Automatic annotation (TrEMBL):
CDD domains: metallo-hydrolase-like_MBL-fold (cd06262). Its EC number is 3.-.-.-. Residues 13-167 form the Metallo-beta-lactamase domain. It comes from the Archaea. Pfam families: Lactamase_B. Gene3D superfamilies: Ribonuclease Z/Hydroxyacylglutathione hydrolase-like (3.60.15.10). InterPro entries: MBL_Glyoxalase_II, Metallo-B-lactamas, RibonucZ/Hydroxyglut_hydro. It comes from Halosolutus amylolyticus. Its cofactor is Zn(2+). The keyword Cell cycle does not apply. The keyword Metal-binding applies. GO terms for molecular function: hydrolase activity; metal ion binding. This is MBL fold metallo-hydrolase.
Length: 192
């Protein structure tokens, strides 16, 4: 079962998702809290760290996690410090027991990726979209509203109304009609 290890943490961090299974993966190690004991309390080992993007609140703990578990990090841009291996657009990546497609979704940050698995109906949305029609900031460096809207539209082309879970970079995961939340984010981003 996917667990958010940052739930309840009172620090400026992203959500940190542990995806156990055949390939136990941490999606975004977060920042500003000691995530290593939280990982060790649930699993004995990690196979990889996968990054939605490299903003500091998502990767602040990256060095500690890589050192503690002797794992590599996978992300969009291996020229960025800490990213060991590239994940190409539409590349298939195993997270836990399922194969996900990586979707390059810039607009919040150039190296942003979302991960979608049709079989279990799971989307890791990073900071692209959030619950209730919220969407990623575009006022930071590399942010661009038009590009963000294109990225949200692209995700909508991949997912369908059977989407069961959407795990976002901040705030609660969405398990009640998450497709509707993504659709609302696409509308809200156009109006803002």
């Amino acid at each position: 079962m996917i667990a958010n290890l940052a739930q309840g943490v009172q620090a400026f961090t992203s959500n940190v998702f542990l995806v156990p299974g055949d390939r136990t993966v941490l999606v975004d190690p977060g920042a500003n809290f000691d995530v290593v004991p939280a990982i060790r309390s649930r699993v004995d080992d990690l196979n990889a760290v996968v990054l939605t993007h490299t903003h500091p609140d998502h990767v602040g703990n990256l060095g500690d996690v890589k050192a503690a578990f002797d794992v590599d990090a996978w992300g969009c841009d291996p020229s960025i410090d800490g990213v060991d291996h590239a994940i190409a657009d539409e590349e298939r990546v195993q997270l836990g027991d399922h194969e996900y497609v990586a979707l390059h979704t810039p607009g919040h940050k150039d190296d942003h990726l979302c991960f979608y698995a049709a079989d279990p109906g799971v989307l890791f949305a990073g900071d692209l979209v959030f619950q209730n029609g919220s969407f990623g900031r575009t006022d930071l460096e590399e942010g661009d509203r038009g590009t963000l809207i294109e990225s949200i539209d692209r995700v909508l082309e991949w997912i369908d109304e059977d989407l069961a879970e959407m795990h976002t970079g901040h705030g609660p995961s969405v398990t009640n009609r998450p497709y509707d939340h993504v659709e609302l984010s696409a509308r809200m981003a156009r109006q803002a």
